[in-house]
Amino acid sequence: MAFSLTSVDINRLIALDRAYVWHPFTQMKEWMEAEPIIIVEGRDCFLKDIKGRWYLDGVSSLWVNIHGHNRKEINDAIKAQLDLIAHSTLLGLANVPSILLAERLVKLAPEGLTKVFYSDDGSTSVEVALKMAFQYWVHKGEKGRTTFLSLNNAYHGDTLGAVSVGGIEVFHHTFKPLLFKTYRAPSPYCYRCELGLTYPECKLGCLNAMEEILSAHKDEIAAVIIEPLIQAAGGMITSPPGYLKGVRDLCTKYNVLMICDEVATGFGRTGKFFAVEHENVIPDIMCLSKGITGGYLPLAATLTTQEIFNAFLGRFEDLKTFFHGHSYTGNQLACSAALACLDIFEKDRVLENLQPKIGFLKERLKEFKELPFVGDVRQCGFIAGIELVRDKRTKEAFGYADRIGWRVAAFARERGVFIRPLGNIIVIMPPLCISLENLQRLLDMIEESIRRLQTTGDLEKS
Question: Are 225 and 157 in contact (CB under 8 A)?
């Protein structure tokens, strides 16, 4: 559809958005007082608004876009599938794209993950994993395993099960009366260690704290759920080397399942196809979404082992069936997009070509450490977070009223770069296909925007 909008059309769209659309994770009072950016087109790493202005997409449209917008191969795959059928249920039927995609995912996944359960998004992939882990133990005769162990600062989605294993107070505290009980282990947040320790002298003391919980409550815990290597929505918190492998070892030692939520970290974001590959970890259950379709359509997959799958097998009257499903499970259009996305990984040698960009990002981020108000810079492959603080020496944080991350984002938007912060953390997560030239532009604009904080006149210098 081509857009040719007059000022009257634009003003009407803005008015309609304010009148009818409730935006996620958005304070709507402030949204309705500002002029929204309304997107009409995307090309490569850029987004075009209704006024014809282009923005560099610095956060991959919330971490989903992999190969760029309007990628011909994915467009063609969806169009070809649309000429056949858009959707038929996976309840009592199968379909070609979902079968072929399951095969591809199993071949790419760590050895031992052999079964694929489809759902719709990251939250539902986690919901599937939690229910699957719980019911597995029920079938094994251990009905007392009714809870989970997760991390502080964790984010696993917005469904109530996913929120129950979440650990971000500002997102989750409102819903506490609705949540089930879970245990929480310290986050591997070295910059703000909950245990008051210093890495590497601590020798991963946070794992010791996790072990204490597992030792005391192993018979209650169905699984440990973590985001491997980086707690994304928690503030791009990167775990120190050996932490992920240590969690796997503890799960094995205390005979609890390990769920790895690769929704944000999967599909090349960390420099390997899956984050667990960095420490040769094989989880019992792995959750995938976001980049699975290249950022085109909602799709999720929960992968698990033959052992867990076998626990659900029985006669119809045994009621061992996994009673869980979604209307659009295994949707043909989404699975076709995902297959095309995986083809591009191979054809364009995406992971190989990503390594120089990861190296460039690493070197350039070193310069950010010297900027005003920058307390910590964290990187995991092609994901980075820049934590802004009021006082670099004491690590004093800015308050919510300072809106420091949003001010940096607003400065960047003026220069044609779209980023979305996590409170005081500036997130860098562009599409993997971004050119070195555009990556440099993105970093230049973020640096310039942080420097502009010095000139606003209402912030103390650190």
Answer: no
